[in-house]
Amino acid sequence: MYVPVKGGEAAIAESRKALARARRGDPAVPELTVAQIREQMRGAVDRVMTEGALYDRDLAALALKQAQGDVAEATFLLRAHRAMLRRMGHSEPLDLSAIRPDRHISATAKELPGGQILGATCDYTHRLLDFSLMGKAAPFPEAASGLDDMPPDFPRAKGEEGEDEPVDITRVPLRPPYGPSETLGHLVRGEEGFLTGLAYTRLRTAGAAHPYVEDLVAGEVEVSVALEDIGLTVSIGDIELTACRMVAPVLDGPRSHLSPGFGVAFGCNERKAVAMAAVDQALKSGLDSELVLAHADGVEAGGYVSHLKLPHYSDFQADLETIRRLAADD
After folding, report:
1. pLDDT tens per residue across span 261-303
2. Rounded distance, CA 140 to CA 75, Å?
């Protein structure tokens, strides 16, 4: 079916050159560096790291530069690179109760350990274009001092009760029934827009079962690895995470309770963490797991949709013949 593409090698080579020219843009404008993308486009970098399932800011920034800022394409590039990396081992479960928060809020409790920390967020801005950013660089703002860094009361991130070992979703086909870690793994890599749309749909139809953000925290957490040969657990560094704990009331007479949901993402990626927590809670309340998990992967969805642009001459001719035959029968 794709033979015509193979026959156009010269055209494909020219297409790649055209892509490189489009990526560079006007040569009179200084080229955007990977370091600039890494430091000044953190929202896009964090999203690519999360959906690409690889915590590496430099590679995520490189993918964004190569993809001309297309987050879906950059995620595809990072995911493909990750698939070629050697697996060195598994980290210990992250202790989110020891996270060092840069931002820590709750929509259900006024009092939090260390107080509510607003941190860096667009939540309290006017969403108006700041034309001053088009000029010369503004002075670097000074950080406030004296913030209390008491850790949030978050649970240890591990498999739920009844699950012996977390499932490595990169090595196990997606088949029901879905275990807790398998569900969370696919939600973490799920496309942010898809999960946000699902969460919005649930909110529009939630009624009295409206979910609440019980705890939202963004900060650094330590990653440790167990060295089985020598019987030691060592720290290999810190990563930035955003974690959200959601609760929703389930009204069922004497069995009424709060149903939990959990979301987590690399870097500062609140929309993804909150949407994931809302969808996780919805899955526990009856949302179709097959609908969500089988369609949440943006790389798979994007690839399948993009393949429609490739030649389908034979298929299309077959469909035309079917249409003509059926029309003639009438």
Report:
1. 999 999 999 999 999 999 999 999 888 999 999 999 999 999 8
2. 31
Closest CA to 185 of 318, 84, 317, 292: 292
Nearest to 192 by CA among 65, 63, 278: 278
d(CA 288, CA 190): 15
Question: In sequence order, which ranges of 90-161 are alpha helices (DSSP H)?
Answer: none
Would strands 212-227 and 232-250 be described as parallel, antiparallel, or unpaired?
Answer: antiparallel
In this structure, what are the phi and psi dihedrals at residue 114, rounded to the nearest 5 degrees?
Answer: 85, 0
Q: How confident is the model at residue 3 (pLDDT cuts 50, 70, 90)?
A: very low
Question: Which of 231, 7, 213 lies closest to 106, judged by CA?
Answer: 213
Determine what percent of the chain falls in helix, strand and coil, rounding each to the nearest 5. 45, 15, 40
List residues bridging with 258 in a β-sheet.
249
What digits encode the pLDDT tens for the residues 147-166? 555 555 655 444 444 456 78
Q: State both tokens at 196.
A: 């946000």
Element (H, E) at 40: helix 34-40
The span from the CA of 20 to the CA of 10, in Å, is 16
Token look-up 């798979």 returns 300
Strand runs (DSSP E) across the chain, as ranges? Answer: 100-105, 212-227, 232-250, 257-266
One-letter amino acid for residue 84 of the chain = M
Domain residue spans of the chain = 3-83, 96-119+145-296
Q: Tell me how many degrees the CA angle 284-286-289 measures, rounded to the nearest 5.
A: 80
Place of tokens 């394409």: 73
